[in-house]
Amino acid sequence: MLSTIDRRPLISRNSFSTASLVESFLDPVIVIGLLFLAAAVHGAAVDAAYILLGLLCFLLTFPGSRYLRESPTRMVLGTLMDWGLIAGLLLVFGFASDYIDFYPMPVVVTWMVAVPVALIGANLAMRRVLPRYLAMEGNQKHAIIVGCNEPGVRLAESFAQDPMLGVRMVGFFDDRARDRLPGIGTAPLLGSLTDLAEYVKAHRVDHIYLALPMASQPRILKLLDGLKDTTTSIFFVPDIFVTDLIQGRMDTIHGVPVVAVCETPFTGFNGVLKRGSDIVLSTLILMMISPVLLACAIGVKRSSPGPLIFKQRRYGLDGKEIIVYKFRSMTVCEDGSVVTQAKKGDQRVTPFGAFIRRTSLDELPQFVNVLQGRMSIVGPRPHAVAHNEMYRKLIKGYMVRHKVKPGITGWAQVNGARGETETVEKMEERISFDLEYLRNWSLALDIRIILKTVLVAFNDRHAY
Asked: Tell me, which fold does domain 140-242 have in CATH?
């Protein structure tokens, strides 16, 4: 399952290239340009207020959303969600500060409606224009891969599958004969490692990617020495990247390069952003759902004798034990060394409990856990301690999901991987979604999951 959903790019989308440059400036240029155009259409003077709003929009939209490589559906939904969030923030701030009075309402309405349409249209247009532009001979980078192994083959496949990279793979260099390189396919084998320097001097080569095992250090040093009198850019593709990287990145410690193989996405500013959004959103949500909380509390009390809140031990951040709140939905409160998961038609579930489980209303008290800092709104769902101890021995990478706080909802849940996990395969599917979330986290992804949760919560056939 991991291989079917792994979308990790081998080349960072943040790298400086024509495609990344377009992605960075496309959104702010369109948003600011349409603001001034809407003002001109409605006869409004572009004064200091518009310039200030334009600067604010630049800060909110730069660098732009990187959707050129996403599916059209994901691009459209992501664009609508991103602009909806920005427009909502601007409107709330504008009305709260009376700053909105500086702009005629027709200008505001025209601008906010036109922006998502223009962004989607521009993105679709760039998908056709950019690959053709990058495919032109003068715009492509010619690349050679040294080492026909798994990292090298995957790199070659990335070049072939992603025209936005603007790279044409010329061929491989490897000391082994072609019949010993089953993964090479139809790609040219240009020669052995000793032929590399002469080939680079005689042909146009912009990039060289060294995909040799780290144990080959003497050969790598010899290659680098032979390439010193060329102007070719050289990149090292260490073989550690054949493992399942979680937020993998390069860093330095006092000049010593280190590679993060498994790390939480919530370091530095990302951690502040995640915690800040949790506090703001959970506070607003608790205020809005207070009548629902009261109704659920009354329903639980009338359904069967027992406590209102069911407290369960769960593993939180870094595998530390936490207490999680839920509305009680059963006639029992199991939290021992053995916990039996709820099954369809489970006699322990009360009629009202079945309703709040099916609609996920039993999870609402966990917004209090979010304010306490024990949980996050979005993250891997917490499992019972007994289940953790069982599955950590059966599923590779199971405990990696505890690199972040558990969530009320998560990427696995909105993709249907929730409810009873009566087989190891079903739990593996859930864990694969959790790890994908850790690899690809962004605030936009969190908002997308929250919105999708609202849509699926009342039509979930896996909850009982």
From this structure: Rossmann fold (3.40.50)
